[in-house]
Amino acid sequence: MSMREDISTPRRTKEIIQRHGFSFKKSLGQNFLIDQNILGKIVGSAGLDASKAALEIGPGIGALTEKLAEVSSKVVAIEIDQRLIPILDEVLEPYPHVKVVHGDVLKLDLKELFAEEFEADTRVSVVANLPYYVTTPILMKLLEEHLPLENIVVMIQKEVAERMAASPGGKDYGSLSIAVQYFSEPELVCIVPHTVFIPQPNVDSAVIRLKVRKEPPVHVENEAFFFMLVQAAFAQRRKTIANNLKSRFFAKEGREELERLLAEAEIEPSRRAETLSIEEFARLSNIFYRQGLQ
Ligand code: SAM
Question: Which residues contact 75 (CB under 8 A, 6 or more apart)?
Answer without folding.
Answer: 53, 54, 55, 56, 65, 68, 69, 95, 97, 98, 99
